[in-house]
Amino acid sequence: MSTFHIHTIESAPEQSRPVLRQLEQNFGLIPNIAGAMAESPVLIGGFIGIFQKVHSGTFTEAQIQTLLLTNAVTNACTWAVAFHTALALKEGLSPADVEAIRDGRAPADRQHAALSTLTKTAIEKRGHLDDNDVNSFLEAGFRKDQVLEVVTVLAASTITNYAGNITRPPLEAPFQEYVWTA
Fold first, then answer.
1. Are 86 and 175 in contact (CB under 8 A)?
2. How many whole angstroms separate alpha carbon 87 and alpha carbon 70?
3. Looking at the domain assignment, is residue 89 inside a domain?
4. CB half-sphere exposure, 167, CA atoms < 13 A
5. Taking a C-beta distance cutoff of 8 angstroms, is the pair 109, 91 a contact?
6. Which of 74, 26, 63 is nearest to 47 (CA)?
7. N- to C-terminal Cα distance for the chain?
8. I need a labelling partner for 127 at 20 to 30 A (CA). Which of 72, 108, 144, 154 fits?
9. Distance CA 126, CA 35 (A)
10. Residue 133: which domain range?
11. What is the pTM of this model?
12. How confident is the model at residue 3 (pLDDT cuts 50, 70, 90)?
């Protein structure tokens, strides 16, 4: 059981409140993981800044969710796996591809498989990608700048995954059907 408080807008440190308001506006709720992260205005501020960049990059929302779900599985963050399962399905990933990612396998869709494989490999190799890793990604139709954009998404999700693994927030009711265990 976590000893970290899940903050509301009212209980959060003053500097964390604008981020919580923004998340509530975007999602219709404050995700429990953000409520836990709000304990540190530095963490929640960094989190929102990098996520805004991620969602304004070159990847589609479905591609971003492929990356985020893969990262959550690879980092074994149970909260993030459930959350990004729901978002991946909402963004149009096939249930079979979502299940493959949750099982640690590559999705059937060629581009989603390349995204998932590259980010999982980057985590497992701690960023030491070789030419074959990068070339496989490029051969799936991506560009060199997108290899580095994957690093940005990976950094953003690492913030969430590590914070979730440390604070262990409870899973909200809308995501309960997507519970996952490592």
1. yes
2. 13
3. yes
4. 26
5. no
6. 26
7. 17
8. 108
9. 29
10. 61-159
11. 0.93
12. confident
